[in-house]
Amino acid sequence: MFPLLLVLVVSIPLSSGAQIPNQGQAKDLPVATNGEPFPWDRMRLPITISPLHYDLTIHPNLTTLDFTGVVRISLDMQEDTSTVVLHAKQMHISNVVLLAPEGIRPLRVLEYPRFHQLALLSDSVLTKGRKYEVQLEFAANLSDSFHGFYKGSYRTSSGEVR
């Protein structure tokens, strides 16, 4: 198991126009874990949104070798969209909300494990040029490899493993 922390990658806008998540083309879309169409069909994230700031809190438990956390991501909308796509691998996501000027609204979450992606779906359009925040809670196991948030150890000069 290789849990990775949540990552929203900053994309460089392309001159060929905006990539807006696929909406209304369900027959061509990948399928989320719950059987619904996943609104994005590429490994690279859409350039409809730019992350501005991450406020991340992580609570590791070194006894149970797992962790929980909360992330609040400040977003700048490059295009009108109702979908935020981000990367997350083998994480349990909960309590996902949109912090908008109009107030706090829950977001629906779809997962597409093949590309390690989540889609956060809003009931209303997020408007180009406006700032929003997404907040979500997560939990996962500490990795046994050097991927994501992992446990490590070292041997002291006296031979003690820490």
UniProtKB/TrEMBL annotation:
* Record bears the keyword Signal: yes
Please give one Pfam family short name. Peptidase_M1_N
Database matches in InterPro entries: Aminopeptidase_N-like_N, Aminopeptidase_N-like_N_sf, Peptidase_M1_aminopeptidases
From which source organism is this entry? Goodea atripinnis
* Cytoplasm in keyword set: no
Q: Which UniProt keywords apply?
A: Signal
Q: Signal sequence span per UniProt?
A: 1-17
Domain Aminopeptidase N-like N-terminal: start-end pairs: 51-160
Annotated protein name in UniProt = Aminopeptidase N-like N-terminal domain-containing protein
